[in-house]
Amino acid sequence: MSQTISRIVLCIAIALVACTYIVSAAPIADSQLEAGSSFANTRINILKKKHNDEEEEEEESDAATTTTGRYNRKHSKTTTTESSEPTSTKTSKKKKNSTSTTTEATPTSETTKKSASSSSSSGSYSGDGTYYDVGLGSCGWTNSDSEMIVALNHVQMENGANSNNNPNCGKKIAVSGPKGTVTVKIVDTCPGCDSGSVDLSPAAFEKIADLSQGRVPVTWDFV
Q1: Dihedral sign, CA of 115, 120, 123, 124?
Q2: C-beta atoms surrounding 217 within 10 Å
Q3: Is there a contact between 162 and 202 (Cβ–Cβ < 8 Å)?
């Protein structure tokens, strides 16, 4: 019985000691908890501030990048515009020069045409003009002294095997002499006449000179 009581007393004493210890230790734990909570809040505030600073730096960096990009695009556009304008001006000058060249080439073309025209109209022949007694000619036709006919020099008449088929037969030439000009038809060949000379009928000779002259310088051409 006494042992039981002793044990009960001992348990009570232990319980009292334990309660005392717990009560005395509780303020220390609360203090440490409050200290730990304060430290955690401080750490959280520091992290938040750091995070906010980083976000502000990123926003400033983005703003700077955007501004730089806009400036670069504007500068690039300005450069392109400045580059294209001289090109257009240069092209315009080339077209203008080309037009001038064409304009200058036109008189040359006209001059060439005039030269060709002058060359084709300057094909007159020259030689002596005489007259003869007309009869049967090398072309196969019989004519009279009163007709306006001519015998062409043998060099330019160029008779073939059959002189009647000569393509010059029947052609007309205009002969000019001291007194004037007469148009005559080729009907014969003059064997003794030099190149450029013609032998006219008496009637035709009188149109360019007097019969008494017998021989006169003449010029002529085909008509």
Answers
A1: negative
A2: 13
A3: no
Torsions phi, psi of 219, nearest 5? -130, 150
Tens of pLDDT, residue by residue over 106-164, are 344 443 333 333 333 334 999 999 999 999 999 999 999 999 999 999 999 999 999 99
Question: Residues with Cβ < 8 Å from 3, sequence gap 6 or more?
Answer: none
Q: Are strands 125-131 and 198-200 parallel, antiparallel or unpaired?
A: parallel
The per-residue pLDDT for range 85-97, each reduced to its tens digit, is: 444 444 444 444 4
Residue whose structure tokens are 């037009």:
99
Alpha-carbon distance of 88 to 110, in angstroms, equals 34
CB atoms within 10 A of CB 26: 10
Q: How many CB atoms lie within 10 A of CB 104?
A: 9
Measuring CA to CA, how many Å separate 203 from each of 157, 206, 223? 22, 5, 20
Q: What is the DSSP letter of 150?
A: E
Q: Cα–Cα distance between 173 and 221 in angstroms, integer?
A: 5
What contacts 60, CB < 8 A, 6 or more positions away? none
CA distance readout (Å), 130 to 6, 59, 106, 192, 206: 193, 119, 48, 11, 10
* Amino acid (one-letter) located at 6: S
Predicted model pTM: 0.47
How many other C-beta atoms are found inside a 10 Å radius of the C-beta of residue 205?
A: 29
The amino acid sitting at 125 is Y
Asked if residues 190 and 180 have their Cβ atoms less than 8 Å apart, the reply is no
Closest CA to 131 of 220, 214, 222, 217: 214
Q: Kindly state the tokens that stand for 189.
A: 């060949």
